[in-house]
Design brief:
The structure holds 2 protein chains of 2 kinds. By secondary structure, chain A is α+β, with helices and mostly antiparallel strands. Among the domains of chain A are: about 45 residues; about 90 residues, 2-Layer Sandwich (Enolase-like, domain 1). Chain A has 12 helices and 14 strands. Chain A is globular, with a radius of gyration of 18 Å. By secondary structure, chain B is α+β, with helices and mostly antiparallel strands. A 5-stranded mixed sheet of chain B has the order 2-1-5-3-4, with helices on both faces. The longest helix of chain B is centred in the last third of the chain and has 14 residues. The chains are: A alpha+beta, B alpha+beta. Chains A and B meet through helix 2 and helix 6 of A and strand 4 and helix 3 of B.
């Protein structure tokens, strides 16, 4: 690991100032950044530790939504009585990220800002049609995820919280790589205000919506409805862990499981 | 260089570290607490697990500066001053839950966190899933799972001593 300066600001405003340096990197749980730094994939001039910013913590219900601070760790979402009552699929998803120790450190904001194609949270954010709150603005999930490890966030913009609308029904299922536990293909389904959304993670270079499945489920909310929908392998990831065709097949299987989980 | 002050096994330490210094490096190289191991160094094997404020974390994936002000417990902090082992250590010994022993410090630290988080008790399946972040590459998991189940009974006050393993 190359060395870097370390800063621990107490407010979002101070963190934004420190991140104006294009070579500075934000850290919260560090469970993606530290491994990347060890591989010398990154050489930040400074690491800005967000973990001391109180205004970015906590889970609260606001109207018909659950708002979760970016610094909230996976274990906190997984065990939150509020999340379990309002969006059990989100608590389920959080309880299956990485392993226990990853969940004890990793944060919602870190996962979503990084937008790893094989991360879990982006599927919930896109599937639930969440709104991303940043230090500058609010961004709809549909506009946020822009490609592999790429989001709408600017260099000096920090994801501060995510607002998840409470759905009537939601479910998540994934096939994880048995060694790395990263998602091979996952599907998050949700019916919110009568509208159906289906988000697919792990299978492609970036989380995406499956419009054909959304149409089929809007007409008939059942696992049978998606059985006839074929996921194309075009543009999906193919690697030593599985071909694009295999992942395309998994999308169908995971969609059925996600619907079964949603009930 | 940043200064870090933290409590390790009840003792307060202050050290100068680089920004990039890992918590496991501070523990092993500065404080000479070499019971915490580095196995994979890629956040997967769990040999480096310690407790920060009572929760299990991988110290190879935590910057030392991020543990500033924290209360850290390592494998060296479990036994009593007179050498009496922690129930989890005693159970690992009784059930032969180790062979080479490399993964053991991390296994024990993860297992204690797991048991503490489940005062209602643990099924074998829950124990196996709770060890997902710890890899053993020689003796296998059967005896580790048995040891954790036996230690849980003592830690939760259901038994006063570790149940003897079958002869």
């Amino acid at each position: 690991m190359y060395d870097f300066a370390y800063h621990k600001p107490a407010t979002v405003a101070d963190a934004v100032k420190l991140l104006a340096d294009p070579d500075a990197k934000a850290i919260s749980g560090g469970h993606t950044l530290i491994p990347a730094l060890k591989h010398r994939l990154n050489k930040p001039s400074a690491v800005v530790d967000l973990s001391g910013i109180a205004e970015m913590k906590g889970i609260k219900r606001v109207g018909n939504a659950i708002v979760i601070g970016a610094l909230t760790r996976h274990v906190e979402v997984a065990t939150s009585a509020e999340v379990k009552a309002a969006i059990p699929a989100l608590a389920y998803l959080a309880s299956h990220i990485g392993d226990v120790q990853v969940r004890n450190r990793g944060t919602l904001g870190g996962s979503v800002s990084n937008n790893d194609p094989a991360a879990d949270y982006p599927a919930a954010v896109l599937g639930l049609g969440a709104t991303i709150h940043t230090s500058k603005r609010k961004i709809a999930a549909d506009d946020f995820f822009q490609g592999m490890f790429t989001t709408a966030l600017e260099q000096d913009e920090i994801l501060t919280a995510i607002e998840f609308p409470i759905p009537e029904k939601a479910g998540y299922a994934k096939m994880k790589n048995p060694a790395s536990r990263y998602v091979m293909a996952g599907v998050f389904v949700a019916k919110t205000g009568g509208a159906v959304r289906v988000a697919v993670n792990g299978a492609g270079p970036c989380v995406f919506r499956q419009a054909d499945m959304e149409k089929a489920l809007a007409a008939n909310w059942s696992a049978d409805a998606v059985a006839g929908v074929k996921q194309s392998a075009d543009g999906l990831n193919g690697d030593i862990h599985g071909s694009a065709e295999y992942r395309a097949h998994l999308v169908g299987v995971m969609a059925k499981r996600a619907i079964a989980a949603a009930g | 260089m940043p200064q870090v002050t933290l409590t390790v096994n009840g003792q307060t330490h202050t050290a100068e570290v680089e920004g990039r210094t890992l918590l496991v490096e501070l523990l092993r190289e500065t404080l000479r607490l070499t019971g915490t191991h580095v196995g994979c160094d890629t956040s997967q094997c769990g040999a480096c697990v310690v407790h920060i404020n009572g929760e299990s974390v991988k110290s190879c994936t935590t910057l030392a500066v991020m543990a500033n002000g924290a209360n850290v417990t390592t494998i060296e902090g479990l036994a009593k001053a007179d050498g009496t082992l922690h129930a989890m250590q005693e159970a690992f010994r009784e059930y032969h839950a180790l062979q080479c022993g490399f993964c053991t410090p991390g296994m024990v630290m993860s297992a204690i966190d797991l048991v503490q988080k489940h005062p209602e008790g643990l099924t074998e399946q829950q124990i196996r899933e709770g060890l997902e972040g710890n890899l053993c590459r020689c003796t296998g998991y059967h005896n580790i799972v048995k040891a954790i189940a036996a230690a849980a009974e003592v830690m939760h006050g259901k038994r006063s001593e570790i149940a003897r393993a079958a002869e």
